[in-house]
Amino acid sequence: MASSLKSKLNALSSSAPKKPVQKPVLMEYRSETAAERALFSLPAEGVRRMAFDAPFDARRALFLDTETTGLSGGAGTVAFLVGLGRVEGDRFVVYQYMMSNYGAEALLLEKITPMIREAQTLVTFNGRSFDVPLLRSRFTMCRMDDPTAGKPHLDLIHPARRVWKLRLKDCSLGHIEETELGLHRDHDIPGAEVPERYFSFLKTGDMTLLEDVVDHNRQDIVSLGTLLARLAGSYAAPLEQTSMLDVFSLGRALQRRGERGDAETCYRLAAKERPLSTIERLRERHVAASANRQLSLMLRSGGDMLRAESVWRDMIDRRQMGIFPYVELAKLYEHSRRDPEEALRLTERALELAADDEEKAALHKRRERLTRRIEARRSSK
How far apart are CA 212 and CA 143, in angstroms? Predict the structure, then answer.
């Protein structure tokens, strides 16, 4: 019985039409545009302030972006399309390599390896968290040496967020292109649709499904060069930014870098009082208070209490940040000036402005402590 069933299955198998095995093929694309002129004279200070301290030469950089079979990573995620851009002479040339099927992955990785090895630096947008780790895992899975290992990597998403997050909120590459780079994509494919397009191509062999994907990837890489030039210029000249929100944000970035003098200059510019003429000016009034707060705390941490006090009194005059300047002055007078009476007066004023129970509870404790100290001083005389 068993042998009879086996013979029938074998007969069905031999009579079924055979699907031809598709040969792995690597599809290659090359395009070029005039290189962004600013790439040839990037301000070294601007690049350094982007938290990139390695030597950088745009002519030796490799701009990298991938399109993958999944947006969340994982062991089954594959980069089916890898785009690489670099400056060649006065041109910006983009090379793109795409797998005809999963069997072509080794061909793709072999193709991109020499260009990665030749590069001095990798430049990406969110590549440190996604693209490069994914490629590393694929090199490992294919038992190939990883050319990205130890390669300096400038991920532009982090300096972009540091300077524009406060103003733009949305720091996706597409939004930055429209608002900061003056670029607008017509009929661009949403990134979430890219994996499904590739899966449909694998089923149908219809190359038209991937035309938008190739264009999307190419534009991402070209935009990396434009974005790099714009960011380097912004970090090199923070006081020349048109929005005080950006000036303040750059001040915070400089403070984190330990450039306190330039950070102070940014904070003071962002903190200046300006007439309310537009909605943007209203936002700048709010950031002026934050700039004064950040400036005062930086001065305090550096031990410059006289100038910190001046900022806190300016904040009180301009009614900025609620009880914050009163509390900071109260601390100053209690601990440094040894003047509990003035500290108590400031605390009482803060209590009048306190907005919530937590603030009030902390201020009541401070008032009780100061009152006890004053009474103890009087009784000891």
Answer: 32
Q: How do 79-88 and 91-99 pair as beta strands?
A: antiparallel
Q: Which residues contact 11 (CB under 8 A, 6 or more apart)?
A: none
- pTM for the model stands at 0.88
Q: Label residue 206 left, alpha or beta by phi (over 0 means left) and psi (-120 to 50 means alpha).
A: beta
- The answer to whether residues 67 and 194 touch, using CB atoms and an 8 Å cutoff, is yes
DSSP letter assigned to residue 204: H
For Cα atoms 78, 84, 86, give the angle at the middle one, nearest 5 degrees: 165
Q: Which residues, at least 6 apart from 137, have a Cβ–Cβ distance to it below 8 Å?
A: 75
pLDDT tens for the chain, 381 residues long, are 455 545 544 554 444 444 444 789 999 999 999 999 999 999 999 999 999 999 999 999 999 999 999 876 666 899 999 999 999 999 999 999 999 999 999 999 999 999 999 999 999 999 999 999 999 999 999 999 999 999 999 999 999 999 999 999 999 999 999 999 999 988 889 888 999 999 999 999 999 999 999 999 999 999 999 999 999 999 999 999 999 999 999 999 999 999 999 999 999 999 999 887 777 777 888 999 999 999 999 999 999 999 999 999 999 999 999 999 999 999 999 999 999 999 999 999 999 999 899 999 999 999 999 999 999 888 886
Residues sharing a CB contact under 8 Å with residue 181, sequence separation 6 or more, in sequence order = 223, 226, 227, 230
